[in-house]
Amino acid sequence: MNLHAFYNQEHIGDVLLIRLTHIRKVTHFLREDDLCILYHQDKVIGYNLFHASSYISHLSEGKVKITPTFVDELNAVLTKYQQDTVTSDYDDHFRVGKVVEMKEHPDSDHMHICQVDTGDEILQIVCGAPNVALNQLVVVAKNDAVMPSGLVIRPSKLRGIESNGMLCSARELALPNAPQVRGILILDEADYQVGDSFFK
Fold first, then answer.
1. Is 196 a domain residue?
2. How many CB atoms lie within 10 A of CB 162?
3. Mean pLDDT of the 117-142 span
4. What is the mean pLDDT of residues 37-42?
5. Are 138 and 97 in contact (CB under 8 A)?
6. In contact, 161 and 136? CB cutoff 8 Å
7. Is residue 70 included in any domain, yes or no?
8. Is residue 181 over pLDDT 90?
């Protein structure tokens, strides 16, 4: 299950937003005390949990890290309201990758088609960053990764070429003191290895 959660107390209050699927269109909802159940037709696609800090410990602003404790606490709430419990693979889908092949996009003057080794598979990723180059170590947001902005990475086509993932900049990763310029984050081989979880 692709379990994602977001918390922004400053702007929306003590409410935990929970996403269970890539489907985003809510057709109707049902509110039961502190739990709002979000539906797309007859399928539950997420929840809004009000007074969230009363139920879930150690909530952090932004994208919430999914841990066994988080899942247990959330499932206690769902069981209380007779909802199906949830699971997680606890994988944030951010990996250290290496650009092992690169060629120009046939329909773009700035995009490149990259083959990127993530340790367990080679991914084709279309990248428009001006600094991408062969043999670089990079941060790969694989499919189902959730960016700090809330964007979920999905398979796509860019100018007709399939792309499975994204090569990330420091700014897109919301790293402290990230430069506000275009360009992916290049990692030092002394500090990272292909296949590492970036946010380890």
1. no
2. 12
3. 97
4. 95
5. yes
6. no
7. yes
8. no
Q: Using one digit for the tens of pLDDT, what is the confidence trace for 21-33?
A: 878 799 999 999 9
**How many structural domains comprise the chain?**
2
Residues 127 and 176 in one domain: yes
Listing DSSP states for the chain in one string gives ---EEEE-HHHH-SEEEEE-SS-----EEEEETTEEEEEETTEEEEEEEETGGGTSSS--SEEPP--HHHHHHHHHHHHHTTPPP--------EEEEEEEEEEE-TT-SS-EEEEEE-SS-EEEEEE--TT--TT-EEEEE-TT-B-TTSPBP--EEETTEEE-SEEPPTTTTT-TT--SSS-PPEEPTTT--TT-BTT-
Name the maximum alpha-carbon separation found in the chain: 56
Same domain, 120 and 161: yes
Q: Which residue carries 């985003």 as its tokens?
A: 24
Q: Please write the tens of the pLDDT for every residue from 67-76.
A: 999 999 999 9
In a domain, 37, yes or no: yes
Domain boundaries, position 174? 94-187
**C-alpha closest to that of 103 among 75, 71, 127:** 127
Phi-psi group of 17: left, alpha or beta (phi > 0 → left; psi -120 to 50 → alpha; rest → beta): beta
Q: Which residue has the higher pLDDT, 118 or 3?
A: 118
* Paired tokens of 1: 């299950």
Does residue 63 sit in the same domain as residue 148?
no
117 in the same domain as 168: yes
Residues 51 and 104 in one domain: no
